[in-house]
Here is the input.
Amino acid sequence: MHLRPSSLLLTAALGLFAVTAQAADTKLTMGTGGKSGYYFAVGNLLCTSFAQSATGYRCNAKATDGPRENLPKLRRGKFDIVVARSDWVQDALKGAGFFKSKGADTSLRSLFSIHSAPLSVIARKGSDISSVDDLDGKRVMLDGSATYLVKQLPQAANWDTSAFDTYKPNEKNPLRKQLCSSDIDAVAIVVGNPSNWILKTAQTCPIQLVTVSGRQIDRLISGSDALSQVSIPANTYSGVTSPTKTLGYKAILVSSASVSEDEVYAFVKSTFENLPQLARKHPALRGLQPSDMIREGLTAPLHPGAARYYREQGWIK
Here is the structure.
């Protein structure tokens, strides 16, 4: 069958339109974390949902080395959005800590916070450690973030911490046996819940989570943009049947002032409109409330695209 010239032209035009439409899609690239961690899983989920629900957008979640890689690459324009912990964002904004030599990145803009990364203190069930004050004089192994955070606790200034020690990431698994065999009294980590390490420890020996709360803790939280009150839900871990009050950081989605308002608006709108479905797909997204997500842990100013959506919803003025 021979096609008329007009038919050929129409076919060619339609093909060109399809290619042009595809090429016109806006692509967002998100920096997350290691492939086995929450940051990559959640970031990939948000990206996939966004690409499926927002017309004209593509989104690619990249596995990374975490905030050490994410925030510098965001600054250089290699990423459009990144996942980072609230304290890391605060340091990058101010040019402090790891970012001291790089200078302040005043272009950072917050979108919203997601799950918490609380200070989780694990002790053997039946031990005499039930509140954070009971760590005074005990044998405690802490990860780097917990070491820093415990030092900020007002009451810690009067503790005997001679048996406190900071462990390296590759030393984490042997701590389970040491805790269960009473070679150490407690382990303190800053981690999203549920944590695989704590889950496996609870299966190895009965554990309890230590409460980190009180008036002094409340004052510490109120004086910090990076810290929030956290309650680890009951039954997150085997045998821990009551909620555990503590404090911690937030994982937050951050962009740059150089990323367009429309792009950020579309991403934020998609996330909140699909939040119920997203919450069913990953534990880190369960129980999130928009009223908390748009305020807690946001250590950089709001991006105009995020603020625009929140104003439309009547959540901010």
DSSP finds twelve helices and ten strands in the chain.
